[in-house]
Specification:
The complex is a heterodimer.
Chain A lengths: L1 H11 L3 H17 L6 H4 L3 H23 L2 H5 L4 H16 L1 H9 L3 H20 L3 H15 L1 H11 L4 H24 L20 H14 L1 H7 L1 H10 L7 H11 L7 H18 L6 H7 L1 H20 L1 H7 L6 H34 L7 H25 L5 H27 L6 H26 L4
Chain B lengths: L3 E12 L2 E12 L3 E6 L5 H9 L6 E6 L2 E2 L5 H5 L1 E4 L11 H10 L6 H10 L13 H13 L5 E5 L7 H16 L4 E5 L3 H7 L2 E6 L2 E7 H7 E7 L14 E7 L2 E7 L5 H9 L2 E6 L2 H8 L3
Parallel strand pairs in B: 3-8, 3-9, 6-7, 7-8
Antiparallel strand pairs in B: 1-2, 1-4, 4-5, 9-10, 11-13, 11-14, 12-13
Helix pairs in contact in B: 4-5
């Protein structure tokens, strides 16, 4: 029993349990606060339940993988099973939240279990075994509540009118989890997946740790790396053929340095494809400006994930920053040039995103091309970008930890809140009010203030 | 030109409640190869990072190449090379690419030297940095720090991950660098035998302060081990000798080490205590152990 206690302690010593406990309490609170209403209206609260179970599963997945992908797991007898059992029990606690849903919201057990278990196993995979398949399944999971047809099927399943679907999904999830457990039980250093361990704390970013993880991946997928990096190799050769004298040359150097990790082109295109899918299925449902307004939430949210993702990858550079800051430039120059490098990349990603949005608008929603909502969205997007960039820059100036990652994630939610709040305001008051726009401008001003504070902090903080 | 390239005055650095550097003074003189010695956790890396301006001390002042360390100009950084304890480079770049990439930041870059060192140190220039071993990455970090032929080279435990042959090559290169009288090298290491080969100055960090900072030869002259035999019994004042570091007494004989050794001391002890006294020279590792004897 003490072995299991020791395993449990590994969660409690990482502030992880604090986050998990808070999530659990929030989840219970949210579900208990919504007892009445039809199944269709309660479906609004399903994403909240799924986030409550998915986020801890993701963290548990990362933590579990850190424990299993280590020499200890291979050398210490009876090491892996207790770790897997404790992780399973913790996830089972969160799965138990589904029972609250059954009790309070009158959902049917197989249906809600199937949905919650899907969220848990998907997030567990994303944490423990990140890969392309998990990301695709994640995109699908996000689409289900958004696309009316898929949402209708899910409602039927939750209501208990599609039992075969519920049981099939449940069985598939159990099988998927069994495969994951089997994989983790047999994981050795020979497996390329051994190196795919995600950092959760500054200590996880130690050069030796990261190098060992990368070595496994890069050795096993050498051909893939060579293929994927061929264009970067050519660009690098062109950029480094002469000393970087001008500001633009130095910015180009800084941009290409991180190219391997901050390449978000693929992300922009994948999300655009997802939007295309949604619009294709849901375009006939959009008849009013309010519908159009709701539909813009997703692309807006995605646009804000771009600066967010950039700063997340910047945080991962933390161990290298001291070394890099000693290249010939004053600290102020170095901070400014890096900020400009990030902004240049952000500008390019946003330009592509904008072009894709315009194309989608004219192909599927031409009737809204003169809608005032469009201008409101454009102004909100601009202000939100300023807020996101400034606030993320400030959060990133604190040491990398679970807390900074959570703060970054909260920022992503915060930046969208004026848009949602203004929708609620419009439903209840004058539809012509620019409430959201005012909040957006406030956010933009806050972003400038945060950005200024961040710049000053980056110019003076201790670097590793 | 100032004589000191690094100057720390009354520097105190705390991490939360833990005082790592305690009102520390340190001067690195131009043209020297100085070894920084200290136990694990003594604060060697913190000292180097304060000197480089990466960490800001709570009190005191750090200056590097005549400028405040936390406000270094680009020109000063052009004259500075640094190899951190754990070298972290862009994993996706090839060895030759990271060399070219680093070189592009500097106004002066000796590509010939870099290529020669990469060849001598058997680093495959077409290999991606991410697939290099710890030791190979360390070697690459050293080569990159030498490429712009810095006036001041700061190395934080540079040979910890190197095999004996690579260590020997590194020391040879370091000696070449040091041959130019204008160059200054500051390196922290645990491998005292390496320091003995290359360093002419030694600074010993203990309890947050520099407890010794002088020439290596002076240190060796200053710290000695004495064996003493007193047939009538050891005198009670033995442990009160000034500068005594470590004393193991056994009946009529004792072995002790002391700092601040004077050539006339054995003769005086033999005369005063009717004793047989012999003196042993210590190597740097032994001196380090004696200085840290609790």
């Amino acid at each position: 029993m003490s072995r299991y206690r020791q395993v449990l302690l590994t969660y409690m010593t990482r502030r992880l349990m604090l986050v998990l406990s808070a999530t659990l309490l929030m989840g219970i609170g949210m579900l208990l606060s919504h007892r009445n209403g039809t199944i269709e209206s309660q479906i609004v609260f399903l994403p909240r339940l799924l986030m409550t179970v998915a986020f801890p599963a993701f963290l548990i997945g990362i933590h579990l993988k850190q424990q299993i992908a280590s020499p200890r797991a291979s050398l210490m007898p009876g090491y892996r099973v207790p770790h897997l059992i404790v992780a399973g029990l913790l996830n089972a606690c969160f799965l138990g939240l589904s029972l609250v849903g059954v009790e309070e919201l009158n959902w049917q057990l197989p249906g809600i279990f199937a949905v919650a278990l899907y969220a848990i196993s998907l997030s567990l995979h994303l944490g423990a075994r990140p890969g392309f398949v998990s990301v695709l399944l994640y995109v699908f999971a996000v689409l289900v509540p958004i696309v009316p047809h898929l949402r209708a099927v899910m409602v039927e399943m939750l209501a208990g009118r599609e039992p075969w679907l519920a049981w099939s999904l449940l069985s598939a999830n159990v099988a998927w989890l069994v495969l994951l457990v089997d994989h983790l039980l047999k994981l050795t250093e020979d497996d390329p997946d051994y190196g795919r361990v995600q950092p959760m704390h500054i200590g996880d970013l130690r050069a030796a740790t990261v190098r060992n993880q990368l070595r496994t991946q890069m050795s096993d997928y050498k051909w893939w790396w060579d293929w994927a990096l061929a264009s970067s190799d050519r660009r690098l050769a062109a950029i480094t053929s002469k000393p970087a004298v001008t500001l633009w040359q130095r910015i180009s150097l800084l941009r290409i340095g991180e190219y391997g990790r901050t390449n978000l082109w693929a992300m922009v295109l994948i999300v655009a494809a997802a939007e295309l899918f949604i619009l294709y299925l849901a375009r006939s449902d959009m008849t009013t400006d309010q519908h159009f307004r709701s539909a813009l939430s997703l692309p807006l949210l995605f646009s804000f994930t771009l600066p967010w993702a950039q700063w997340i990858t910047w945080i991962l550079r933390w161990p290298r920053l001291g070394y890099e800051s000693l290249r010939p430039a004053t600290r102020q120059q170095w901070v400014m040039e890096n900020a400009l490098a990030l902004l240049t990349d952000l500008g390019r990603y946003l330009s592509l995103w904008l072009i894709l949005q315009v194309v989608l608008l004219f192909v599927f929603l031409r009737q809204f091309s003169a809608s005032p909502v469009l201008w409101e969205a454009a102004a909100f997007c601009l202000c939100g970008q300023v807020f996101s960039f400034g606030a993320c820059a400030l959060v990133a100036s604190f040491r990398y930890s679970v807390m900074t990652l959570i703060a970054q994630s909260l920022l992503l939610v915060t930046v969208m809140s004026p848009w949602f709040l203004s929708s609620v305001w419009r439903d209840q008051n004058d539809p012509g009010t620019a409430f959201g726009l005012v909040l957006g401008v406030v956010g933009g001003v806050l972003g400038l203030i945060f950005g200024t504070i961040a710049f000053r902090r980056w110019c003076s903080i201790d670097l590793p | 030109m100032t004589e000191s390239v690094i100057e720390l005055r009354n520097v105190t650095k705390r991490f939360k409640q833990k005082v790592v550097l305690d009102n520390l003074d340190f001067t690195l003189r131009r043209g020297t190869v100085t070894g920084l010695l200290g136990k694990n956790g003594a604060g060697k890396t913190t000292l180097l990072k304060c000197a480089l301006g990466l960490l800001t001390p709570q009190t005191g002042e750090a200056r590097l190449l005549g400028e405040p360390a936390t406000k270094l100009s680009a020109a000063a950084k052009n004259r500075l090379g640094f190899v951190p304890q754990e070298v972290s480079l862009y994993p996706w770049m090839k060895v030759r690419q990271i060399a070219a990439y680093t070189g592009a930041f500097y106004a002066r870059w000796n590509q010939g030297l870099v290529e020669r060192l990469l060849k001598e140190w058997e680093l495959n220039t077409d290999e991606r940095v991410g697939t290099l071993s710890t030791g190979q990455t360390q070697k690459l970090g050293i080569v990159l720090a030498l490429g712009h032929e810095p006036e001041l080279l700061v190395l934080d435990e540079p040979v910890a991950s190197l095999d004996p042959s690579a260590r020997r090559q590194f020391l040879g290169t370091l000696l070449d660098v040091a041959m130019d009288g204008n160059r200054t090298v500051l390196l922290s290491t645990h491998i005292t035998s390496d320091l003995e080969r290359v360093a002419d100055q030694v600074a010993v960090l203990k309890d947050g302060k520099i407890v010794y900072d002088d020439e290596l030869s002076s240190l060796k002259e200053s710290v000695k081990r004495l064996r003493i035999v007193v047939p009538t019994g050891l005198p009670s004042g033995l442990r009160d000798l000034p500068g005594i570091l470590n004393c193991q007494a056994n009946g009529t004989s004792a072995v002790f080490s002391l700092r601040g050794f004077l050539p006339e001391l054995p003769e005086r002890l033999a005369r005063d205590w009717q004793a047989q006294v012999s003196v042993e020279d210590l190597n740097l590792e032994e001196i380090f152990l004696e200085l840290h004897h609790e």
